[in-house]
Amino acid sequence: MSTTRHRPAVDADELRRRVRELLDAHPPATTDRLDFLRARFDAGLAWVHYPAGLGGLDAPRSLQAVVDAELEAAGAPDNDPRRIGIGLGMAAPTILGFGTDEQRQRLLRPLWTGEEVWCQLFSEPGAGSDLAALATRAVRDGDDWVVDGQKVWTSSAHLARWAILIARTDPDQPKHRGISYFVCDMTDPGVEVRPLRQITGEAEFNEVFLTGVRIPDSRRLGEIGEGWRVAQTTLMNERVAIGGGRVPREGGMIGLVADTWRERPELRTHDLHQRLLRLWVESEAARLAGERLRQQLAVGQPGPEGSAMKLAFARLNQHISALEVELLGEEGLLYDDWTPRRPELVDFTGREAGYRYLRAKGNSIEGGTSEVLLNIIAERVLGLPPEPRTDKDVPWKDLPR
Amino acid sequence: MSAADLLYSEAEDDLRAAVRSLLTDRCPPATVMSEAESGRAYDVALWHALGAEMGTAGLLVPDKLGGQGATAREAAVVMEELGRAVAPVPYLTSAVLAAAALLGCDTGQEAVARLLGALAEGRTVGALAVPLSTMAVVPGDGTGAPAATVRADGDGALSGQVSGVAGAAGADVLLVPATGADGYGLYAVETAETSVTVEPLTSLDLTRPLAAVTLTGAPARRLAGPDRAEAAIGRALLTGAGLLASEQLGVAEWCLTETVRHTKERHQFGRPIGSFQALKHRMAALWLELVSARATARYAADALATDSPDTPVAVAVAQAHCAEVAVHAAEECVQLHGGIGMTWEHPAHLYLKRAKSDEIALGTPGRHRQALAGLVDLPAPTG
User: Fold this and answer.
1) What domains can you pick out in chain B, each with its CATH number?
2) CB of A313 within 8 Å of any CB in chain B?
3) What pLDDT is attached to residue A298?
4) Which of A275, A281, A372 is best to mutate for the B interface (most B CBs within 10 A)?
5) Inter-chain CB proximity A289 and B276 less than 8 Å
6) Per the record, GO CC terms (chain A) (predicted)?
7) Which of A262, A332, A382, B31 could disulfide-pair with A325, CB 3.0 to 4.6 Å?
8) Cβ of A277 and B369 within 8 Å?
9) CB contact under 8 A, A262 and B377
10) Can you tell me the ipTM of this complex?
11) Tell me, which fold does domain A244-368 have in CATH?
C-alpha cells in the first residue's frame, strides 16, 4: 500500500526477522562455525551499524544488542570477539573510515569472522606516549613502500595475518605531518616477530622487526602524510573498546576478592575491611558510570567519558588486586606459574591473585598511559591550555633523539 | 536494577534550565554571601520564587495532594542546581525531608494532607526535627529511625531537645519524632508557639544554618503512631540522603568549573597556571570523580523514584561516594585558587563549608560504607 520508495527503517523487529531467516537457512546445530559466521556477515547482522554489503544494515548501533541476544539464545557461535579485539575495535573502524571500496571488501569480512587476525604496529622503543615521534621509515619504491624499523608491545603479532602500521614517509616534515598509515602483511619475509616476556612471566606481547618489508601503495589507508589523523580514529576507538561493555554488580575484579572475603572469614582484618568497602563502592561507582556511558552511546550522545572509564578501571584493578594479594597473606607469597607462556588473550579471572596484581600494572600503561589520558581530559574536555611545546613545528629529522 | 535510567530526560533538562536561570539571576555568590551574613534563616524572596512560583517545593508530592506529582529524579535535578549555587533555601529540609516524612504518614488523614499541600505550595516551611547528622538505619539491621529525644505527655504536648536541626530556624512547622505512652510517633508542632524555642547555632555551613530546638510542653498533633512513624522517618532520611548526593554533585561541579576558569586566566611564570601538568592532572582527576559521582547520584535518584528494592544500596553508594567527591572538589578549589581561595571575599569557602557539612549530613561516608557491609554481605571481622 505504501507508495514511498524509502527503504524501510531497520528496527528491532526487522532485525529479529532477519535473524530468524539466518537461523532457518543456517541452523547453528548443523552448520560449520565459519560458514555460519560468513553467512551472518553477509546477512548484515555482523555489526548492524556498518553499511549494507560490509556486514551491516546501516541500523542504529544500539540495535546490535538485539541481534546478539537473539543469536545467543539460539545457540549460534560468535566470532570470539576477545581474541580479535584489535581487528574489531581498531582496524575495522579505520578501514571503514579511510579505506577504499576495494580495501573494505577484501579486508572486513575475514576480519570480522576471525579468519584473519589483526595486530597493531604503532608503538616503538623510542615512541611510546609520544607516538608521533615514531622512526619506522617507509620509502617509496615504484608502486611499493619499503619499510624498515622496530615496533614493540604488539599483542597477537605472532597470530596475525595483517597489521595496521604507521610509518614515517617524510622526515622533512614536522613529526605529526610526515606519517602515513598502511596495512602490513605479517607474512612478508621482512617481518620478524619476537616474544616479549613481561613481569607476569608470560609473553603476551611481541617485538616486531621490519626489514625491507614491501607494502604495495594500494594498502595505504588515507592520504600520504595523513597517517596521524587516521591513527586518531584508531586510538579513539581503542579507548571506546576498552571502556565499553555491560557489567553486572561485582562483575569485575572486585567480585573475586569479595568472594574470597565471604568464603574465608579467617583472613579478615579491620584494616582490610575498611579498604575493601571503599574499593567496593568505587567499583560500583565505576560500573554505574560505565552503564551511564553505555546509555549515552545508545541514544547517540557519546561523551568523553570513555577515557574516564579506562582510567578508573586501571586504578581500581591495581588497588583491588593489591588488596587481594594482601588478604591472602601467606598464600599471597606464592605465585602460580612463572613459565613463559603465550596466551591468546588476557584472562584476569583464570589465574591467581599474584598474576592479577602484576598484570594490572599494565592497565595504566597500555592504550595510553594514565598520565597522558589525564592530559587529554584536561585539554580536550576541560579546555585547559597545553604545555608549551618545542617539537611541533620542527622537521622530524631535526628533533633531538 | 539493570533497567535504571541514568540519563536526564528532556523534561529534567528543562527543569534544570529554569532553576539555573532563576539562580543565576537571583542567587549569585555575592547574594549568597550577604544573605549568609544577614542573620536571616534563608532567602525568603528566592524561596518564594523557586518553591512557590516555580513549583519545585511540591515536586515529590502527588497532584491530588497539591503537589507537582514528579519524582525523586526531578527533585535531584533541583538539588544539583541548588548545590551549584549553594543556595540558602529550605529545599532539602522542607521540600525533601519534611515532605517525604509526611508522605510516609497516612495521607488520608486530613492534618497530614493539609500540611503536605501547604508545604507543596511553598506556603508553609517545614523541617524534620532530627539532627542533620542523623542517618537512616537500614531496616532489618535495627529500627528505621533514630531514637527520639523528645517525650510526648498524655495530652500530646512535647518536651525535650533536638540539637543541630537544619532548616528549623525559619520553619513554620516542625515534624518531631517523639516517644509517648504508646510508643514512637511523629508529631507536628508550630514554631509560633511560645513553648517552642528555636535557637540558631553558629554553624560551619553559613548557607544551611543549624538550630537547637527546645520544646517545653509544646502543643502538638500526632501525624503517625508506632505503626508507621519509624518507617516514615526512615524513608525521609533515606530520600534525603539519596538526594543529597545530587546536591554534592552540584557543589563539586561548581568547584571544578570555577577552578578550571581561574587556572586558565591566572598567569604565573609567564603562562596560565592551568597549563602546568601538576595542576591539570588534579583537575582531570576531579572530572573523573564527577563522572562516577553523577552516575551514582542518578542511580540513587532513579531507585528512589521507582521505589527499587535496591534503594538502600543505591543511596549508601551515592552517599559514600559523592560526599567525598564534593569535599575533595571544594578542597582542590581552595588550593588551586591560591591566596584568593583563602579569602572571605571569594565564594570558594562557602562551597567548602557546604561540602564538609554535607559529608556529615545524613550519615558520613564511613557510616554509609558500614551500612553497605551488611547490605551486600561483606561482614566485618569478628573479634
Assistant:
1) 10-124 (1.10.540.10), 150-228 (2.40.110.10), 231-375 (1.20.140.10)
2) no
3) 74
4) A281
5) no
6) plasma membrane
7) A332
8) yes
9) yes
10) 0.96
11) Butyryl-CoA Dehydrogenase, subunit A; domain 3 (1.20.140)
